Amino acid sequence: MKKPYLFVISEMTLDGxxxxxxxxxxxxxxxxxxxESNIFLHKERASSDAIMxxxxxxxxxxxxxxxxxxxxxxxxxxxxxxxxDIPLNSNVLDKSAPTIIVTSKKAPAKNIxxxxxxxxxxxxxxxxxxxFKLLMENLYAIGIKKLMVEGxxxxxxxILKDQxxxxxxxxxxxxxxxxxxxxxxxxxxxxxxxxxxxxxxLKGVRVLGKDLLTEYKIIYKKSTRQSLx
Length: 229
Ligand SMILES: NC(=O)c1ccc[n+]([C@@H]2O[C@H](COP(=O)([O-])OP(=O)(O)OC[C@H]3O[C@@H](n4cnc5c(N)ncnc54)[C@H](OP(=O)(O)O)[C@@H]3O)[C@@H](O)[C@H]2O)c1
Hints:
Elements: E1 5-13, H1 27-30, H2 35-46, E2 50-52, H3 55-61, E3 76-80, E4 99-103, H4 109-117, E5 121-124, H5 132-141, E6 146-149, H6 153-161, E7 167-173, E8 199-208, E9 211-219
Parallel strand pairs: 1-6, 1-7, 2-3, 2-6, 3-4, 4-5
Antiparallel strand pairs: 7-9, 8-9
């Protein structure tokens, strides 16, 4: 399968949380990122052909996904949104960088038309939900060879499950927030069997100001089936 090199970057608290509570913007914990981490994040954006973030993150965070902390070109913004119900005042629909809203055949035509009227491209990719394997083939075909994914946890589960993730980079912030309802890196339905575990091999460790960066290669291998319960 021809697909872009796909790497994930997430900022995470010391207790493994992506945001304060479910439904709350991660921009609050991102305020605790060191300048060095922000520069790293934006260099990674500038070195990527495209950046992908789930539709719910756009609805909650209203992310820009542009390059600001360093000089460089902003990548193409890819937003999977199965029903094309992205708020029309979202920052990613502005003119600061190109955007592709990826949707499914279930998306109402009026939603698609409203996005196109703003001059933003819509790619239909999948029957009921966005089909990520097909999306990767389509992105490769239009010249996207390096894709950065900045979450959230639902999208991360889906691309992991489809074995599309090559690398994960975590910026560990030295803060703890607790809360059983605070989202962690990967959500979705989770593995059903121990043979489904995704393994990661440590590639590198770096200090970014007061934060720690860890980089992992993802390894897909099947072991003997062993029930979780
Ligand atoms: N700390 C960090 O690094 C970081 C980074 C990003 C986000 N976050 C946080 O994560 C939270 C949002 O995460 P989230 O998990 O709710 O949302 P998400 O992963 O950003 O987006 C999930 C949405 O993607 C859409 N989608 C498209 N195709 C899909 C498919 N095949 N399968 C499943 N969903 C598909 C679904 O909406 P449709 O049904 O409409 O398609 C789904 O609701 C926010 O609080 C945000 O602040 C933190």
